[in-house]
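Batch manifest, entry 17 of 40.
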Amino acid sequence: MLPLDVPFVAEGDYPDFLADHAASLASVHFSLSDPAMADARQRMESTDLTTLATSLLKLPGVPKYVLMNTRLHAPEKYFSPEALNSTASLLERLVEQAGINGIIFSDPYYLQALSDAHPDLAALLEAIPSVNAMIASAAQAFALIDLVAATRFQPPTKLVLDRNVNRCFPRLKHISKELGARRPNLKIHLIANEGCLLNCPYKPAHDAHVGIVNEGLCGDRTFAINRDLGCIRRFLGEPAQFLVSPFIRPEDTDSYAPMVDAIKLCGRNKGIPFLKRAVSAYISGTYDGNLLDLMDAMGDLGDQVRIPNKSLPADFLNHVTTCAKDCRDCQWCSRLADKIVERFDPGLPQL
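Output type: structure tokens
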């Protein structure tokens, strides 16, 4: 079984749950939900740093990374000496009290600014490119590694590839071979359960919207826009899109072992029951339930759509990793969706 990179939240019994499964963990990532460390989700309630640090110490030896992966930082707000000092102070406490290994970033301007202002601190931390960098080639990976090398941050020990390579085995094998030949110590991860559209055309605008919401430049209508105009509308109108989405089932992770080193799970804002369910399913390598109950993005539709995971055919992975991705012409996923996808009104019991 491939080890997992999983979200960490200091709530309830979740830290103890992860401690019980520490042997299955490659690393953990977490957000402070703090304006000084902006990340790529709408800001939730801030995390108490002392509680977080104490909880993280329950995972000795497991690499720990704080999310600073917003797409943009308003320079007048984040690049001032005072703002950089505030961020550095939080990072220093995380190093001292929780033993974090690094940061996950998306904004290279901010990475350079933080390195310039606090080079000694930067030298203690890896800088890991976010999955939102959408790394789909070895050349992209090398460019980001070179970017980090131009700062005082330590080079990344891992990279999460773009989810759209999950179902393109020839490209994935090529990337793995190229990176392995030139960076043999670099661990390659794939994200398994984001669950949005394949090659999602809405993603750049979605990420930008989250950024400007967090900067207070507009109201938060992300879900409503997706429901009325974007990916949620597509999913509900074309149920085959659920199957086209480049998720990796728990049952299929072993097929990726020759090409990658670990599987990343997301869903840090979806609550402890979701996280424990997803982590348990991917550790055990099987799940007997609604596939959407393991997914981050499209999991919000689990009260309207059911995809029995065990109903997917034995050749599902082989088919979706060898097809041309010309879905309107192929229709294989559409025919499968007609057979197994169940639709029901939200709030009504399943019959």
